[in-house]
Amino acid sequence: MDVITPQNLQEALEELAKDPCAGVLAGGTDLLVKWKSNTINPPRVFTILGLQELNFIREEEGRLCIGPLVTHQDLAESAVVQRHAPLLAKACAQVGSLQIRNRGTIGGNLVTASPAGDTIPALVVLNASVVLQSAQGERQVPLREFITGPGKTVLQPGELLTAVSFPCMEATEVGFYRKLGQRQAMAISIVNLALKATLENAVIKDISIACGSVGPTVVELKRTANRLKGHSLDTSELRNIVVNAGDETNPISDIRASEEYRRQMVGELLYEGLQSLRRQSAG
């Protein structure tokens, strides 16, 4: 494998235009594993981890903008992220091991497009968009449209993902991220779930819910969200409202969990998270 090290973003885009089928290496927590297992074997790889132009976290006009080379650990520890998107910080804190979090990047997590990706449900409920750039120009794509299937995105040959952005959460907005794995750490999600809601006196005025590991892409629970609108977090009917949330999903059975178990756990994770919000609003 030939490894090419561009010195800046422009050089990376120009080199990628010459060889659009080359691999792109950031943290390497996915690409190198696949290479060693002979799942992929690109003859050339562009390593972009040293491009500081793609390593940033900044607030711009009410939006949080994140470079694709920011690691999960940096996001989990960032005061800016914790203030404006705490559910994303929580999701990043649950990615793999400390070693993986210190190496793996948010851009790599999105481009890998795993149905179990920890950051993806959080970014979906945050209404994130990604910037895709090539030597010919750039385009912005809603994250909901970026991932089209397991390992599949709308990224075209010659394009790099160069930024992720989303509106900063408002003072009236709350959220959470929940993950169920076979153990408490270093586990691929059996189910993961993110929620963002607008509250007024503990009453849900607006809400977005997204699940991972329950379909080929992240699944948004739109029917359940509509049922929850207008209800108080204190209502005794809360469990009855969310118990069948898993009916909106399309999971598979595999070595980690059955289809039925995954569907059931969607409702359980959602109820658990809503109870945590109730306690926070009461406190």
From TrEMBL:
Q: Signal sequence: where?
A: none
Q: Which InterPro entries match?
A: CO_DH_flav_C, CO_DH_flav_C_dom_sf, Diverse_Substr_Oxidored, FAD-bd_PCMH, FAD-bd_PCMH-like_sf, FAD-bd_PCMH_sub1, FAD-bd_PCMH_sub2, Mopterin_DH_FAD-bd
Q: Write one Pfam family the protein is assigned to.
A: FAD_binding_5
Which residue numbers delimit the FAD-binding PCMH-type domain? 1-171
Q: Name one GO molecular function term.
A: FAD binding
Entry-linked Gene3D superfamilies: 3.30.465.10, CO dehydrogenase flavoprotein, C-terminal domain, Uridine Diphospho-n-acetylenolpyruvylglucosamine Reductase, domain 2
Q: Which UniProt keywords apply?
A: FAD, Flavoprotein, Oxidoreductase
Q: Which domain of life is it from?
A: Bacteria
Q: What protein am I looking at?
A: Xanthine dehydrogenase FAD-binding subunit
